[in-house]
Fold this protein.
Amino acid sequence: MKREDMLARLMAQEVAQGGDVVTLRAIVEEASELGAARMLARMGLNDDGAPDDLSELRELLRAWRDAKQSMWKAILDWAVRGVLALLLVGIAMRSGAVGLLK
């Protein structure tokens, strides 16, 4: 069961018992705000510099992903060059071109 369904069911149950929907929604909203504030505080993101910190973290993550992608591309490029070099050496040995180097 989804959390939204559970919340809707609990609110319907409270309304059936005489609770006011507007009051219940206000309680849920305040509890959500309090929970979000607690989580941000636990993560250390409750100060005025938090938006800048998040922007820097996003930039750092983007740079890390770019570096990983560049690394794999470089590894693949070197591997292809190595295979082609070995292929050329093999062709040179088969054709007898190694004797020309002596």
